[in-house]
Fold these 4 entries.
Entry 1:
Amino acid sequence: MKSYIEECKSIALNPLSKLKSYLEQGVKAIGMVAFFGPNEIVEAAGFLPFGVWGGYGIELDLSKQYFPAFCPSVISIILEQGLNGSLNGLEAVIIPGQTDTMQCLGQNWKSGVKNIPFISIVYPQNRKLECGIEFLESECVHVKEELEKIKGSKITDEEINKTIELYNEHRAEMRKFSELAAKHPNSINNLERNYVYKSALYMKKEDHLKIIKKINEELEKMPEEKYSGHKIITTGLLLDDENILNSLEENNLRIVGDYVAQESIQYNTDVPDGKNPFRRLAEQWANVEGFSLAYDPDLKRGKLISELAKERGAEGVVYATVKFSDYEEYDMPICVKTVRENGLQAVVFETDQQDNNSEQIKTRIQTFAEIL
C-alpha cells in the first residue's frame, strides 16, 4: 500500500512534472481551475483534465499587474503560473465564474495569457431552480462546443455519459477511501490522506482509479485501529499546506473526514442517472452540499459536519478559511456555531499559499489540541 501512497505523494507534490509526463506521451491537457468544473466533458473529449489549484513557494510578480494585494493568493498564483509559462502545454483552461474574483481571473487570463485560450463556465447560485439547471446545462454545452473546436471533431453524448460512469465509480472509491482511512488512523496519516486526494486532480481518472482501488483493497484486509490522539473533521476550500498538516500530526490530531473543496467535496455527490449528459452535470451541481460556493439558504454545512463527526467519532472541527475569501468568511460564524451546539470543539484560522510562516496557526492548533 505504501508504494501507492508514495506514487500519490510524488504526483501531489510535483504536479507540473506529471503534466510534462503526460504531454510527452502525447496526451493533450486542459487546465481545470479550482474549485469545481465539468471534468467529464473534458475527459470524454480525449483530454486530460489537469487541476490548476495554485501552489506553494511561488513568488508573485507578473500577476501583481492584474490583482490587488487583497486578492486570495490561490487566484493570484494561478494567474502567475499562466503568465510565467509554468502551464505552457495546456490546450486551454476552463475557469468557473463562481465568485467575482474568479470572473476577474477569467478576464485577466484572456488579456494576459495569449497562448492558452480561456473557456468560461458560470455556475449559477440559484442552482436548484429549474431555470438554474437549464442555465448550467447550456453552459456545459458551451464548454463542449469550445472543446470540439480544439479537438477538431464532435464529442458525442454517449462518450460523455460513459465518462460520467467512470467518474461516478471513482467517486465511490474515494468515498470508500475516506471511510477506510478513518478506520485506520495509524496507517494513513494526515499528509498521506491529502496526497491521495490531491494527486487525483492531476491524473486521468482511470489511472487514479487503479491506484485508489489498490489502496482500498489493502485497507480492507487490515483490522480497524484505535487512535491514541484526537480525531477531527476539516472544512474549507484548501487544506494542503504541509506545514499545517505536519502541525496537526505533531499535536496528535487525526483527520477522519472533511468538507474541503479540494478533497471530499469533489466526490460526495454523484452525477445522477439520465440520458442527457449536460442535464446530468447540471443536476449534480444542484445536489452539491456543504460547499461555500454552492449557495445554501438553509445553511446545512454545520449540520452535515456535525453528523460526519458523530459517524466518525471525531471530537473537533478545523475550519480553514482562505484569506480574503468572503464566501468562506460569511459561512464560518454560523457553521462554527452549529458544530459547537452539537458538542464539538472548533478552531478557525486563515490559510494563504503565500504564507511561508505558519507560527500563529501552529499556536492555534496546539491550543486546540490541549482543549480537546
Entry 2:
Amino acid sequence: VVTAMVTPFDTKLQVNWSKAEELIDHLIEEQQSDSIVVCGTTGESPTLTDEEKLRLFDTAVRRAAGRCRIIAGTGSNSTTHSIHLTQEAEKLGVDGALLVAPYYNRPTQEGLYQHFKAIANSSKLPLMLYNVPKRTGVNIAYETTVRLANECANIVALKEANDNFEQITNTIRCAPEGFKVYCGDDYLTLPMLSVGGYGVVSVVSHLAGKELHRMIEAYVSGNVTEAAKLHADLMPLFKGLFIYPNPVPVKYALSLHGIDAGGVRLPLANLTEEEKKPIRDLFSL
C-alpha cells in the first residue's frame, strides 16, 4: 500500500510543516503505509513551488527515517523540469520518483518514450511511471511502457489509473520480470490484483490503510472470498472520497478524524456545508 499523501496547509494556505510530519507518522504508524508519494496530484503538486516540493521531500525523508519508502512526485510536462526535480530529489535521499505522463501538450508515443528515457538516464533512482489518461489527455500504450522497462533498468513500476484491462494485462504479460504494476484508482485495486497487479497507490489509505492491507493480503494468500468482502465494504469510501475533485474530500475527511490538513489552494475550492454532508455520512458523523 502506497499512500499518495495530501499536503497540509495552514490558515493562510502555506505548507504546514509540523502537520506534514504528523501526517507522515499517522500514515506509517496508524495506516501501515509501505511507501508514501510526496507531491503527487493528491499533494496538490500543480500549486506547489519547487522550493516547497524540495522541502517536502526532505521533510518526508527525515521524518520517515527508514520506516517506509519515500517516493517523490517529480514528473511534469517539461522534460527539463522533470529532470531537474528528479535529480534534486535524489540528492535529498528519496527512495524513488513518480513520473506522470506529460499533460496538456499530448506527446506521441515516441515523445513519451523519449521523455521518460531522458529522465531515467539522468538519475539512478528507481522510477514509477504514472498513466492517468483522464487527467493528462494522453495514454501510455503498453508497448511504450514495456519498451521503457526493457531499456531503462531503473524504470521499475507503473501506476495505472486506467480501467482498460486489456492494456493492463498486456503490460503485465510483456514487461520484464520484476516490473510491478500498481493500481492508481482505489476502487480497481482488487480487480487489478486479479490480473497480476502488485499493489495500490492510494488516497483512501489516509483513512483505511489497514483495511486495504487486509484486502491485499487476503487476496495474495488465496482467500478470495474474504478479499471480495473487504473490497465491497470499502466501496463506499472508494467512491465517496472522489465525488468532488481530489484531494478536497479526503482533506475534509481527515479533519473529521482529528487530522487538520487545512484547505486547498485555488483553483480547487473547499467544500460548502452542503457538500460536506455526504463525506460525513461516509463515517456516520
Entry 3:
Amino acid sequence: GDSLFIKVKHANGKRTQEIFGKGSMEAAWPEKQRAYFINSFESPTFSNIIMTEMGTRSADQFKWYLDSVVVTKTNYLIKNGGKLSSQFMNWQKAEIKYEMECFKLNYPNWFYSMRGIPNEELKVDPNYYNYLNGFNINDTLSIGSNQYRLWLKYYYMYELKKSNKQLGATDMFNFAKVFFTGKVLSNFQLHLWFDIIIYGQPTDAQELYPIIKNKMGNWPEFYVLEQIYKEKLPFSPGANAPGFTLNSIEGKPVSLSDFKGKLVYIDFWASWCGPCMREVPAG
C-alpha cells in the first residue's frame, strides 16, 4: 500500500536523497539509523569490533555486550521513531534483537570462523546456553524479520547437533515440531524446504513437496517457492536433460540429441571465472 518517490541529488561529489509519499518515514529509517551509528554498530568495520569484543571478554561478558547493543539501538528507535507505524517498529525491534541473538547463539563457532579458522569450536561452560531456557522461541510478532528467521535456523541447527541425530528430509521436517509451534513452525518448515531446494538434494526436496503443498499450498510464499522448485526439477539427477543446439568451434550447429545414448560431459565456464580460465588449456 506504500507509494514512494525518491529524489536524488549529486553535488560537489556527494549524493543525497529524499524520500516522499506514503511510507516514506519507514523507508528512510534504515539510512537514518545507519548514519547515527556509523562509527559504532553500523560501521563498515563492525565485524572487527565484534571480533575484538569476542577476544577480550569472557563468554558471559560477551553476551552482556551483545545485549547492550540491542538496548542502545532499541532505545534510539523508540526515542526517534515515534511516528513510525507499529508494524514497522515491531519489525525493526526484531531485526535489532535477532541480529545480536545470532551472534550470541553461534559465539562458540564464530569465535574461530570469523578469524578464518574452520572446524574449530570454542569450549564454553555448558551453562552458557542456559539463557535459552526462558527464551521466547516462538516469537510470532517477529515472523516478518529476516534476522529472526535466520535465528530460527541457527537454533534448529543447535538443537539438531545437541541431539546427535542423523535425520532424513522428512524426519528433519518433523523434528522441528519439537521446538516450534503454530505460524512459526509453518514458516520455519517452508524455509527449511527452500534451503533444501537451493542447497540440498533434489530427491529430498521432492520428498517434502507433497507434505508442504498439503499444509501450505494456499500461501503466496509457497507459490513463489514452488516455481523455484519446478525450475530446478529438470536439472535433478535422473531427469531428462533439456535439449539445446549450439555452434561448435567450426561454426556448425550441434544438438545434445545428436549424442543420445552416449555419455556426455558438459563443462560450463566463463571468461570472468579464474578457475575456469585455468582449465582452458586442459579443454
Entry 4:
Amino acid sequence: MSIKRWWKNTKLGENLIFARDRLMEIFFWSVGMIDQPQFGCRRVNLTKLGSLLTIVDDLYDIYGTLDELKLFTDAIERFV
C-alpha cells in the first residue's frame, strides 16, 4: 500500500483540521536515514511513524487545551 493511500484511508487529514500533510518531507527524511533499496518497507513504516508523531506534536503545540493534554498524556503513559 502506498503512503498516500494509507494517509487517505486513515482520514486523519480530514478529521483533524490541524494535521499537516508532510508525507513527502518525512519520506525524504527516511530515505536519508535508510538509503539501501532493499529496505523500502522500513522507509514506508518510518514515514508512517513520523506522520503520526507529527500529529501528536501538533496536538500538543497548537490544538489541545491544558486539561485535554493532561488527560491525553495520562492515557499515553498508561498505554506505554
